[in-house]
Amino acid sequence: MRPCLLLVDGRPGTFTDHVLSRDDLDLVLLRFEEHLSSLPTDHLLRTADIPTFTIDADADIRREAERYLTWVAGLPTRPAHFCNPQEPLQEISQRFAGLVGLPHLDAEQVAWVRDKTAMKRRFREIGIPCAEFAEVVDGDEVLGFAAAHGWPLILKPVDGWSSIDTYKLNDEHDLARLLPLPPTRRWMVEEFLTGREYQLCALVAHGRVLDTYVSWTPCALLETIYGGINGSISLGVDNELGIDEKELVQRIVDGMRIDHGYLHMEFFRSDDGGIHMSEVGARLAGCELPSNHGFARNFDMMAATLDTYLARVPSLEYLTPRCAGDLLLPYKPGRVVKVTPLETLLSMPGVVHGRMNIAIGDDLPDQRASHASAGYVQIVGPSRQIVEDRMNGVLDAFALVTEDVS
Questions:
Q1: Are the beta carbons of 266 and 278 closer than 8 angstroms?
Q2: What is the DSSP letter of 171?
Q3: Residue 48: how many CB atoms within 10 A of its CB?
Q4: Which of 52, 134, 247, 404 is the right S-S partner for 29, CB 3.0 to 4.6 Å?
């Protein structure tokens, strides 16, 4: 029987493109009215023939689930599988999937992978080291945390993603510039961890970690907000962490009752080899990390990922491992007057793929997010250092000039 998948379609991406290209499954799209404006016209045209259910803005989710069940009964095939590849729609989409009888994360699991205070409490409960943290509502509580744990510290939203509204505070003067904390969001602080930050991805099927994939980040994610090189390198080779990543992730999978899918995590490794888990997400990693892993091991990571959401166990057969990374191209607000052509970057050593998100004449809004970029390139090489050197070469060759339009 051909599987039928209900796929959350909130923002186009490499994984969604892969699913759309498959001719061996039936597909139904789930969209949210308030996010339709983020879907490009060419994507809407490409998917015009695919059955699509759109959840009305501000509608009661239970009524929307009932409306979906009536609607889907008229389709030739009813979805039996569900996938939400994106972080911001986690809570609402998982709840909807549960209401319509599809595999999903329950409310407690969603909290563990979305609410950063619930997440870190769960880390502690299952014996996974993490930074000291506390939820805060005002500056006095931040100062109280600093008195107990010292400066610098990290201030961020409990439900944040992509480093949006995340800040490193070196002292009370940095804090004062952010006060008062907007009461419309929940806020937390955590101690600032030193050491090297890594990203860690995993594929899970039937509650078992099939494999893990470590990425080196030339700069910590938060540093990219302040101009640091914004990329990651999948370590098909050069992984000398000296830890059992698979055992570590299996403890998280067991402790959070994760049955299947793609997990994305971040952790810090201290100079003495200690590990502190930062965060975990039960969805695909952002940017191009998943396809980096495929380039680094010469296998189809997108197909393997899709298999886990279709209740299959993918065959993970790797060929000729190497290192592969994605480099986000620098971004600046304003009207674009000059940008290096993608073709120029694709001709550089090790560059195997790329995408440009902007063009001359575009008006770029001001963004403070780790995913903000003019586009990206993916680069391969026989070692991490060679890939990182090639990233710096691309940055030297890339130029983006904008003019103020205010």
A1: yes
A2: S
A3: 8
A4: 52
pLDDT tens by residue, 298-326: 999 999 999 999 999 999 999 999 999 99
The partner residues of 213 in beta bridges, in order of sequence, read 201
pLDDT tens digits for range 253-303: 999 999 999 999 999 998 878 899 999 999 998 779 999 999 999 999 999
**How far apart, in whole angstroms, are the C-alpha atoms of residue 76 and residue 78?**
7
Residue with the two structure tokens 């699913």: 19
Other C-beta atoms lying within 10 Å of the C-beta of residue 173: 8
C-alpha 318/C-alpha 295 separation (Å) is: 10
Q: What is the pTM of this model?
A: 0.92
Contact 170, 151 (CB under 8 A): yes
Cis peptide bond upstream of 321, omega within 30: no
Identify residue 259 by its one-letter amino acid code: D
**Parallel, antiparallel, or unpaired for β 26-32 and 4-8?**
parallel
DSSP 98-139: HHTT-----HHHHHHHH-HHHHHHHHHHTT-----EEEESSH
Alpha carbons 90 and 94: distance in angstroms, whole number: 6
Q: DSSP 3-state assignment of 257? A: coil
Tokens read off for 76: 């030739």
Do residues 314 and 308 make contact, with C-beta atoms less than 8 angstroms apart?
yes
Is the Cβ–Cβ distance between 120 and 133 less than 8 Å?
yes
Contact status, residue 210 vs residue 204, Cβ threshold 8 Å: yes
CA distance 15 to 23: 15
**Residue 25 to residue 230: CA distance in whole angstroms:** 35
Please give the structure tokens belonging to residue 36: 């339709």
Q: Answer yes or no: are the C-beta atoms of 201 and 232 closer than 8 Å.
A: no
